[in-house]
Design goal:
With 278 residues, the chain is of the alpha/beta class. It contains 10 helices and 10 strands. The protein is 44% helix and 19% strand. Strand 1 (39-48) and strand 2 form a beta hairpin. The radius of gyration is 21 Å and the shape is globular. The protein binds ligand C2E and calcium ion (CA) (3 copies).
């Protein structure tokens, strides 16, 4: 069957139209979710190798969807990033984390810091420092209990703006971490110039640790460099005792991953684990 060019064109148009339509619908749904408070945060512990103690938690967003269950970030963060809704979503996350820290602090126990993921678009298009400052003040918490995680792709924009924003965040007393290190485009000189407190090495490198003899080369180099620059190193995605032992030997400062704990919903107390002795 021979179809005319015109028919094909119309068919293509329709598919395209429907794809756009679906995106608009999902966006509207996500906006509604923000308005009706459907986002929840899970918390994943990070453990300090020297002591085995839980030293901080990472807040990871979930969408408690009314019919589809708990949705993971992969199902809605990319869309939010594309549409710009990530700015509002990010503000909701910052507010929720600060409220949760305030709640935990009122329970009268020692509270460890919580790190918050900030997306590139949120970092570049909104005044994250101001949002943070207001949330910290509104909930009456110590800025020392908050850490911000940024990926290398946040730092590709105008470098003056980037370093100024980073400095402003640190001036609040909030620590800064580079997230997914090793997967992006940042140069080592950029790292030296920007004064981060923590370097989180992407889980892809952790996965290589026990596979090949060269698996630890990257970690060894990064840890040496990070320590020379006064940064702590966190290995992400640690799933086995072998990886954890190897990282301890390499003098990695902290580990995070399923080996320690899955991300957990918030309860009355912070998810502080018993000291882990390797
Ligand atoms: P991320 O910041 O790199 O967070 C770590 C991800 O690795 C989490 O996935 C976590 O559940 C998962 N993970 C933890 N331990 C292990 C492990 O041992 N093995 C493996 N394979 N995975 C592990 P999750 O919660 O699905 O989040 C995915 C990404 O979504 C995050 O990656 C982050 O980029 C983004 N995200 C999560 N919450 C937020 C948020 O509040 N705001 C923004 N802007 N992005 C967020
Ligand atoms: Ca992160
Ligand atoms: Ca990460
Ligand atoms: Ca430093």
């Amino acid at each position: 069957v021979k179809t005319s060019g015109k028919m094909n064109y119309r068919f293509f148009d329709r598919e395209y139209y429907e794809a756009v339509r679906a995106k608009i619908d999902r966006n509207a749904e996500l906006r509604h979710a923000l308005e009706t408070d459907q986002l929840v945060l899970y918390y994943q512990p990070r453990v300090e190798m020297a002591t085995g103690a839980t030293c901080s938690l990472e807040a990871l967003v979930r969408w408690a969807h009314p019919t589809r269950g708990i949705l993971e970030p992969i199902d809605f963060i990319p869309l939010a990033e594309e549409s710009g809704l990530i700015v509002q979503l990010g503000e909701v996350v910052i507010d929720k984390v600060c409220a949760q820290i305030a709640y935990w602090s009122r329970q009268g126990r020692d509270v460890v810091p919580v790190s918050i993921n900030v997306s590139p678009r949120q970092f570049n298009e909104s005044d994250v420092t101001e949002v943070l400052r207001q949330a910290i003040e509104r909930h009456g918490i110590s800025p020392r209990l908050v850490e911000i995680e940024l990926t290398e792709s946040s730092m590709t924009a105008d470098s003056v703006h980037v370093s100024q924003s980073l400095e402003n965040i640190q001036r609040l007393g909030v620590a800064l971490a580079v997230d997914d290190f090793g997967t992006g485009y940042s140069s080592l000189s950029q790292l030296q110039r920007l004064d981060f407190d923590v370097l989180k090495v992407d889980k892809a490198f952790t996965a290589e640790l026990e596979k090949t003899r060269e698996g630890s080369v990257f970690f060894t180099a990064i840890i040496t460099m990070a320590h020379a620059l006064g940064m702590r190193v966190v290995a992400e995605g640690v799933e086995t005792v072998g990886q954890a032992r190897c990282l301890k030997q390499l003098q990695c400062d902290e580990i995070q991953g399923y080996f320690i704990s899955m991300p957990l919903p918030a309860t009355d107390r912070q998810p502080i684990l018993p000291r882990y002795v390797l």
